[in-house]
Amino acid sequence: MTELAALIEETRATRPHDPTQYVSAWTEREVLDDEIVDAFVLILRTKGCYWARKSGCSMCGYVSDGYVSVSKADLLTQWDAALEAYRGQPVVKLYNSGNFFDPSEIPALARRRILADLGERCEKVVVENLPQLVRTPLLEEALDLCPRFEVAIGLETADDYLRDHTISKDFTFARYKEAVRVAHAAGATIKTYLLFKPPFLSEGAAMRDATASVRAIDGLSDTISINPTNVQRDTLVDRLYRRGEFRPPWLWSLVEVLKAVRGAESRVLSKPTGGGQPRGTHNCGHCDAVVLQAVEDYSLQREDWLDEPTCACKGDWGAYVRVEELAHTSVDLDRFLT
Fold first, then answer.
1. Cβ neighbours for 7, distance < 8 A, ≥ 6 positions apart
2. 34 FRET partner, CA 20 to 30 A, in 61, 124, 129, 266?
């Protein structure tokens, strides 16, 4: 086990939960066939991602939502309750804080029942998987039941060194590209998550990495989602944050990346978790809501006005980026200098 993996394991915590209750469900806006529609987002409770149990990622606290033992009956009880909450949204995003195609998380019979139910109810299904679990027979089964099927993969960065040494994921960029090839050959689409500002990266380095990563997968992934790091409990990022050694990215930085990759062949979007909060991507607090709205409008293809929002704190952000570069540091300068 690497030193980074050991630190991640040391900070991890799990909490008991009822295995018959799903984690959460909500409705959000999404684009389908160039139209803005409602998407039903469901997080099922399973034993969680196998990689999280072995080591995990530096920013991921979803393992805390897992349960040591979730039977097929427990899972289907969750699913029946979820169907009662479903209101006919044309897109369903089905997450389980892990891998939909991992039978240790979702048994094959439960997976087929879930996909069959969705195929009768919605137009498009999105699930998450690590690339090593994206396999032709599983994709063909899913597409037979849900003709519009999308696989979301947390690539996080196109840089293998950064993925290994700041995030701690157990696959390479080459393995990701092979998963994309397999998915497209089967008829599925691909959404790729990029982590904006992994730990240990300065603001400027994070912007350069996100921009380079988008360009590396542009046209390869159907959709690219830039996800600013948010501080989740009991993670390595949380440990760094509490010590003043990590600041979630500025919203201005996110805007600059979106502007830099404007015109990409792939659809590029960002839906920040915890935006405007201290533990999520934020600016000064006064302009956060306006900038977040601009990012949402851009992501939903409603507006293209990322140049419009402005605030006095934009100068502070620029100084922050420059000082970090000069000091060769990624610590939260605001917390040490104020």
1. 236, 239
2. 129
